[in-house]
Design a protein that fits this description.
Elements lengths: L2 H14 L14 H14 L4 E5 L6 E7 L8 E7 L19 E2 L2 E3 L7 H16 L8 E6 L10 H7 L7 E6 L4 E6 L5 E11 L1 E10 L3 E2 L8 H14 L8 H14 L10 H6 L5 H5 L5 E9 L5 E2 L2 E10 L4 H12 L3 E9 L2 E2 L5 H13 L4 E7 L5 H5 L4 E4 L11 H4 L6 E3 H16 L2
Parallel strand pairs: 3-6, 3-7, 7-18, 9-17
Antiparallel strand pairs: 1-2, 2-6, 4-5, 5-19, 8-9, 9-16, 10-14, 10-15, 11-13, 12-14
Helix pairs in contact: 1-3, 1-13, 3-13, 10-13
The structure holds zinc ion.
InterPro entries: ArgE/DapE_CS, Bact_exopeptidase_dim_dom, Peptidase_M20, Peptidase_M20_dimer, Peptidase_M20A
Cofactor: Zn(2+)
Keywords: Hydrolase, Metal-binding, Zinc
Length: 440
């Protein structure tokens, strides 16, 4: 059996495990059951597997290693997370945990993020073992918990407490990248680009606190914590951080211009408009042109006629590589002296170069299955487990190969209602991943 023959069934089966990550360890369930099932699929093909719970009962992870031809080369980590974000069944066309195959799509929570890749990984791993295929170097397959809540009960814990699981690993592939973007050329034909993730913005969640004098709501009271905080939050939320063209985003936009024949002026202060023209993908790329700070939570007060002594807000900040110090200075200037800030979550940015043997292997695998296409680097505005692996010195790429229908709004499917993946894309992905891992 080839990977393409079983990948659809595997992805459907994975979606039927409800591995909803609520963000609260007490109510998050399903990862262990799913992980043990993955281990069973691998053992059936002849693997020895390692099952680990990361930081709390039920946070299941599975590892399997396939020895390669050259033990002196660093190992390649191939990773996928088993947890998914919540889904409200009433909003969906099909049940989000059905894994139903309808209209040539596999439907369900995780179909794109990222049980698609997990299914491909299992299919390819089983194929290699059954056919006694020896990859050029060791492959470490990792199926992990808690990505959707930042990885404290997943890769964050594993990297801290079980670095032995990553022994000898020098590079890694996982989400979010390897998918196609079809763009019209000036001559009427179409260019198909495959976006390889080589960079991620940093994720920093900030708590703001204003402290002032409590008092009666009927008095003249100029020193009001709610007013002070609200004004600062308003200033920060409306602020536009400066345009900073990183190497990764610059390389992406140059490649787009070259392939489509539509010039993009990288020096233009209005680069946002050019990026918006890329269609839905412009939402991701647009968010990598500058730092962002979006207020997301507010809390103050306990009674309508009592002025509280404190008011609080939480702001979701996403910071470009190399911008941390400048970002903090800018934020402090906007906030002013009356509001305290503290970082409640800090995951650093990440950026690697778009070169080397592994990038060449991705390129040739894609060209074998989709001749005439082109790979380009891109930066993700969000974060993945790559941030944790990077702490071990591992060079990370987002490479989950999928050839997508040009009209599909791929970006909207992540955490979206009616998340689904085309059957053809899964089969394509399994073929590319097989080719890639045989020649990595
Ligand atoms: Zn994901």
């Amino acid at each position: 059996m080839r990977p393409a023959d079983e990948v659809v069934d595997l992805v459907s089966a994975l979606i039927r495990f409800d591995t909803t990550n609520t963000g609260d360890p007490a109510t998050t369930a399903g990862e262990a059951e799913c992980a043990l099932w993955v281990a069973e699929q691998l053992r059936e093909a002849g693997y020895e597997t390692t099952y680990v719970e990361s930081g709390a009962p039920g946070r299941g992870n599975v590892f399997a290693r396939l020895p390669g031809a050259d033990p002196n080369r660093g190992a390649l980590l191939v990773h996928g997370h088993l947890d998914v974000v919540p889904a409200e069944a009433a909003d969906w066309s099909v049940h989000p945990f059905s894994g139903a195959v309808v209209d040539d799509y596999v439907w369900g929570r995780g179909a794109i993020d990222m049980k698609n890749m997990v299914g491909m990984m299992i299919a390819v791993a089983r194929h290699f073992k059954r056919e006694r295929i020896v990859p050029p170097r060791d492959l470490v397959f990792a199926f992990v918990a808690d990505e959707e809540a930042g990885g404290a009960y997943g890769c964050g814990w594993l990297v801290e407490n079980r670095p032995d699981l990553f022994d000898g690993v020098t590079e890694a592939v996982g989400e979010v990248g390897g998918f196609s973007l079809t763009l019209p050329r000036a001559d009427g034909s179409e260019a198909r680009l495959y976006l390889i993730e080589t960079a991620e913005k940093g994720m920093r969640w900030m708590r703001l606190t204003a402290r002032a004098r409590a008092g009666h709501g009927s008095f003249v009271h100029e020193d009001n914590a709610v007013t002070i905080l609200a004004a600062a939050v308003g200033r920060l939320g409306r602020h536009r951080f400066p345009l900073v063209l990183t190497d990764t985003v610059g390389a992406f936009l140059s490649a787009v211009a070259e392939e489509t024949g539509h010039a993009i002026d990288l020096e233009s202060p209005d680069l946002d408009t050019a990026v918006a023209k890329l269609g839905p993908i412009g939402r991701i790329v647009g968010a990598t042109l500058r730092d962002t700070a979006n207020p997301t939570m507010l809390a103050a007060g306990y009674k309508a006629n009592v002025i509280p002594a404190t008011a609080e807000a939480v702001v979701d900040c996403r910071v470009l590589p190399g911008r941390t110090a400048a970002f903090e200075r800018e934020v402090d200037e906007i906030l002013g002296p009356d509001v305290e800030r503290e970082w409640i979550t800090e995951l650093p940015s990440y950026e690697t170069t778009f070169d080397g043997d592994l990038v060449d292997a991705m390129n040739s695998a894609l060209l074998t299955v989709d001749p005439g296409s082109r790979i380009v680097p891109f930066m993700l505005s969000g974060g993945t487990d790559a941030k944790h692996f990077a702490r071990l010195g591992i060079r990370c790429f987002g490479f989950t190969p999928l050839r997508l229908p040009p009209e599909l709004d791929f970006a909207a499917l992540f955490h979206g209602v009616d998340e689904r993946v085309p059957v053809d894309s899964l089969i394509f992905g399994a073929e590319v991943l097989t080719e890639f891992l045989q020649n990595c």
